[in-house]
Amino acid sequence: MIPGPLALLEVGASAGLTLYPDRYSYRYDGGEPLHPSTGPSTVLLECTTNGRVPVPAELPTIVWRAGIDLEPLDVNDPRDAVWLETLVWPEQHERRERLRAAIAIARGHPPRLVRGDAIEALAALASEAPTDATLVVVASAVLVYLPAAERMRFVETVRALGVDWVSLEGVGGLPTVHAAIPDNGTPPGRFVLALNERPLAWTGPHGQTLDWF
Ligand SMILES: C[S@@+](CC[C@H](N)C(=O)[O-])C[C@H]1O[C@@H](n2cnc3c(N)ncnc32)[C@H](O)[C@@H]1O
Hints:
Blueprint lengths: L5 E6 L13 E4 L15 E7 L11 E8 L8 H9 L6 H16 L3 E4 L6 H5 L7 E7 L7 H14 L2 E7 L4 H6 L10 E5 L2 E6 L5 E4 L1
Parallel strand pairs: 1-4, 1-6, 2-3, 3-10, 4-5, 6-7
Antiparallel strand pairs: 7-8, 8-9, 9-10
S-adenosylmethionine (SAM) binds next to strand 4.
């Protein structure tokens, strides 16, 4: 939905594995998979959709990627990789294999990760993005860790940058997004996908479902 080429800046990026949407394969509703230009990826992300989801016909072109985290993890540090594996429930073998495959992909091209706070470090890192690409700030499962007042300060910081931003947070995670969710009841355990504070869909917490508003 955002014209590329894209420069991706993720806050709360952890090891940066979500900075590689162009290197993973996707399958929506069990259909034909969508692959990177280089061919099928070792990571396949599956999603079940409902409603008028604008399922992509091709993957985005990403020309720059960087992340901020209070405690960035290094995909090339075996201890950090093991730590990430401990965050997957023991019986979820498929998730563990997918995590390992994503780490292997990121190891080939480690992302630029800055240690810092989502609000304080954002403007400086954003200024490094190439000006001939569309800068997109991504916040996924991170704003929940900010106190409520800080979340609005984050929103104002992103607005001041005048960039596009995508959020994927729990219900109530972002006050402005929450206020704009269509009043059709809140399904339990869902996250809200939003673009520039406009709610687009309920999602499974890991993006495994998309129910378009
Ligand atoms: C649940 S993880 C989400 C990781 C990734 N965004 C994803 O969606 O898979 C939350 C991450 O946010 C980071 N974090 C929490 N508060 C932060 C802050 N104020 N500034 C930057 N990073 C923060 C944590 O260190 C952690 O890596």
